[in-house]
Amino acid sequence: MSAYLVEESKIANIVSYAAAKRHLGYFYNCSTKERIQAEEPSDIGVILGQENLRSLDYRYEDSGGADGFLREDTRTDYLARVSQLSRRRFDIEDPATIIKRINNLDYQACEHPDYYSSDAYWVLSGIKDCAVHDLLDSLEGGE
Question: What is the pLDDT of residue 73?
Fold first, then answer.
């Protein structure tokens, strides 16, 4: 398996979808049995960006981890851009596109063994559930 650094705008687009659906602040980590403390879009963006970095660190530990993907940037620069972009409202993609973006980020972030108990996993799962519900509603004519 391989992984790469997901563009900041792609993460922010997922966060924008959750914000537009008023889904922020309602995330729960079923592994830790605790509410995820992330009320603002920027908080969610940083959680997701950090998990992508963590995955790259684990997957490419022998060759410098995530640092090799950041080029001249630092982790702080990358997460600051994720945070800043997550505060903006992007045009909301259709649910099918959001599900694809979530699946991509999920795949890029899942390299380390603790991923499925991480807050990022449960945040993505919650947003994906919302998008699947929206997609099914649109297919059923909004019933």
Answer: 86
Count of structural domains, the chain: 1
Residue 1 belongs to some domain of the structure: no
The predicted-structure confidence for 66-107, as pLDDT tens digits, reads as follows 988 987 889 999 999 999 999 987 777 789 999 999 999 999
Q: Are strands 34-35 and 28-29 parallel, antiparallel or unpaired?
A: antiparallel
Burial track 44-82 (b if 16+ CB lie within 10 A, e otherwise): bbbbbbbbbbbbbbbbbeeeebbeebbeeeeeeebbbbb
pLDDT tens per residue, range 26-41:
789 999 999 998 888 9
Domain annotation covers residue 3: no
Query: How many angstroms from the chain centroid is the CA of residue 21?
Result: 15
Put simply, whether the predicted model's pTM sits higher than 0.90 gets the answer yes
At residue 26, φ and ψ (nearest 5 deg) are -120, 30
On whether residue 70 sits in a domain, the answer given is: yes
The range of the structural domain enclosing residue 26 comes to 8-139
- Nearest C-alpha neighbor of 13 from the set 39, 48, 37, 38: 48
| Residue 124 lies inside a defined structural domain of this protein | yes
